[in-house]
Amino acid sequence: MELSKQIKRHRVALGLSQEGLAEKIYVSRQTISNWETDNTYPDVENLLLLSSLFDTTIDELIKGDVEAMEKTIANDTAKLKIWTGAFLASSAAAVLALVGGIWVFGITGPVIAVIAALYVLAIACCVACTRIAKRNDVMTLAETLAFVNGAPLGELRAKRDRTRARRWVLIALTFALTIALGLGLGFAMAPHVFTIA
């Protein structure tokens, strides 16, 4: 494909590393690597950013790659929808098996085996979705929905990057909230355990 060669040629001509180019157009270094190895293609917004940065037209960048790009994106979108549906179905089946199986049969080896198999299937589907999303630099639910609907991702990616910069604060708050919620539920559900003499 010509696009991968064009991106690499222009990047090198500007003296940029993959990471340097990634910073300039607000994507990950892995995304640039995927573009340069024909694993994925930039969306329209990124093509505009690249053409502006490289001081060239989009037509010159893509030269005949449009059809292949559309097929790859459509293929990844279809796969993402299938794996997401399989994840939701296997998760729902696992929950039903957990509740129904234990209710009807009790906690037995076969019931636990079925539940475990369904959860393993759900995890495998989730991993497949994550790989597709990572390959296309789609990491948040909003980005995934935009990707599936063909909407631009630039502003969503910028928002994600701002959030990632504050991730340790979010992790600490989530951890504190989880502990507080656990203690609160513990006191509410089992007051006799925490009685004061």
Automatic annotation (TrEMBL):
Q: Which is an annotated Pfam family here?
A: HTH_3
- List keywords of the entry alphabetically: DNA-binding, Membrane, Transmembrane, Transmembrane helix
Where does the HTH cro/C1-type domain lie?
A: 7-61
Residue ranges of the TM segments: 82-105, 111-133, 168-190
Q: Which domain of life is it from?
A: Bacteria
Q: Which PANTHER family match?
A: HELIX-TURN-HELIX DOMAIN PROTEIN (PTHR46558:SF15), TRACRIPTIONAL REGULATORY PROTEIN-RELATED-RELATED (PTHR46558)
Name-wise, this protein is: Transcriptional regulator
Q: Which organism is it from?
A: Raoultibacter timonensis
Recall the taxonomic lineage recorded for the source organism. Answer: Bacteria, Bacillati, Actinomycetota, Coriobacteriia, Eggerthellales
